[in-house]
Amino acid sequence: MEVESFENEEVAKILNDWFVSIKVDREERPDVDKVYMTYVSALYGGGGWPLTVFLSPNLKPLMGGTYFPPDDKYGRPGFKTILRKVKEAWDTKRDALEKSGNVVIEQLRDALSAKANFQDVPNDVAVLYVDQCVEKLASSYDPKFGGFGSAPKFPRPVEDCIMLYKFRKHMEARQESEAQNIMKMVTHTLQCMARGGVHDHVGGGFHRYSVDECWHVPHFEKMLYDQGQIANVYLDTYVITGDEYYSSVARDILDYLRRDMIGEDGEIFSAEDADSAEYEGAPRKKEGSFYVWTSQEIEDTLGENAELFKNHYYVKSSGNCDLSGMSDPHNEFSGKNVLIERKPGSLMASKYGKSVDEYYGILGECRQKLFDVRSKRPRPHLDDKVIVSWNGLAISAFARASQILKSGPPGTKFYFPVAGCDPVEYLQVAEKAANFIKEKLYDASSKRLHHSYRNGPAKAPGFLDDYAFLINALLDLYEYGGKIEWLLWAVELQVIQDELFLDKQGGGYFNTPGEDPSVLLRVKEDYDGAEPSGNSMAAINMVRLSSIFDAAKSEGYKRNVEHLLAVFETRLKELGIALPLMCCAADMLTVPSRKQVVLVGNKASPEFQDMVAAAFSSYDPNRTVIQIDASNMEEMAFWESNNANIAQMARSSPSGKPAVAHVCQEFKCSPPVTSPGALRELLSKTVAAAGSAV
């Protein structure tokens, strides 16, 4: 529409003569987008972007739609016709139009202000939500190409999260066959995604989605919210399988962000566009121009290794977008290739009579050369907005990688675009991004967040997602990095989140503070889609916080989660597949006592850091890691006033040891251990013990 209508002189004249045109960046103002998208979806049975809505001067919607072609075509009215009809209706039926808009908004307001009928959800019902959601996902699993559902295929990380969560439950119940069935679905999906064209093999990171069923031809946009979540899923799968393949993909994503998406002050940018010019001075941008290759370009760049590379990535002189009828229906990529791995590297290595290391080394060198050539092309536009919620998702991945990746065997080889850095560097990235938010997007006097930043903070206030996703990131920064300041800020932000968004009578959180009268609807979001819902993330945050504090405060967090889940009880029961993360939150709340791993010692010492890595050497979504330096007065004061048991544990830990670990569950603690190996063994025993109890 931008090209067809908004750059058209005739359309511009109509708009300027009869309308006040307002262009909204939906990422900058998701609250405004939500109001009018809800209106269009409710009235016309579906929505999407570009969203086109006509409003009265008091901002009530009159009519709307999505994409309109500039002229009448295929029996559909064009944008110019629509504009004339809206003007005519406004001139002749203004009162009826405004009345209709008011009625619809009031009906939506009633429908969307969901309230709980009960204060909580019974435990025996809550545990079924995960089972029902996993069952539904498994029934939509694609055994050939991986993923859940059919084309277009979106990487929806929350689906993998609940599958891995159920895997853990099966293992605790000693149902190994069922657990392995789930892992096969997850690992096959992650392998197909990483081998497909939806993964940028040359530069790292993942594109938005695949237009076909085989993860081959993507919509080439790269979004920050995808990178953070996908990296976390690969990290979890690495912890479970011990397979370096998954840790390498996680590094690939994080190294892409470090190289291309981070500003001078540590801020992490939002997105890279799909379109770019094919050459300098080209009159029009084209989808994927930056990323696709002709066979000739690869031959000219790679010389003697071109044939090996072309065979590995299915490169053909005629173009390779032929794996599905949906890959390139309009022949836009004729003669072009989107890199995809169709055969395992080990098989290809033996075909060329090379060791796997030598073969992967050649591929890495080839990718580096192509990267250098690609860097000279016109780049897609970089959206350098800094959005708090999306930064939160990425900060979480960087923080978690800093410990999880330490378990890799020494001497591991890395191949471009993976940099192979010391995992500690990822923690530095996470802390720098969090500091940027604290310095530029947080008002220390009001303790409130702004939503986004570009050449200064935007006027939009922080929304529920900003608080919930950032709190999650700060909890990860504390658990994986150890600095008490991040935990203190997370606790403070949770208080503000409750003040601004919590429906104290009805339960759950609204998406906006409700202070701006021009935003006509306050919605309680529950859909875990491309991003988790703020309510799902908030529920998990409070479960995590409840395991850190003593009984009084802990019970307050739990009551809020119970009330929140009661708001969405019907949706959880009838459509759990839309709320996978909230299903996990409901199950987490039923766990009698979350496992605590309390690490006491000198946090800067190598022995302590080895103990932290050991604490995260197994996958356990129902574990909290608490790091304490008993000689730090600020930390001890915090624990004295918030959890005296943990303070006592720190004080009574054996002295003279650089690191001591206590593992506690169901109000019982194991004898302290002082070596990473002993801690790993202890954590594996608690899984077996859980299985015995079942």
From TrEMBL:
A GO biological process this protein is involved in? Answer: carbohydrate metabolic process
- Coiled-coil-forming residues are none
Q: Which InterPro entries would you find in this protein's record?
A: 6-hairpin_glycosidase_sf (IPR008928), 6hp_glycosidase-like_sf (IPR012341), Ssp411 (IPR024705), Ssp411-like_TRX (IPR004879), Thioredoxin-like_sf (IPR036249)
Pinpoint the Spermatogenesis-associated protein 20-like TRX domain residues: 1-108
The entry's cellular-component GO terms read:
chloroplast
Q: So which domain of life are we looking at?
A: Eukaryota
Q: List the PANTHER family.
A: SPERMATOGENESIS-ASSOCIATED PROTEIN 20
Protein name (Swiss-Prot/TrEMBL): Spermatogenesis-associated protein 20-like TRX domain-containing protein
Q: What is the lineage of its organism?
A: Eukaryota, Viridiplantae, Streptophyta, Embryophyta, Tracheophyta
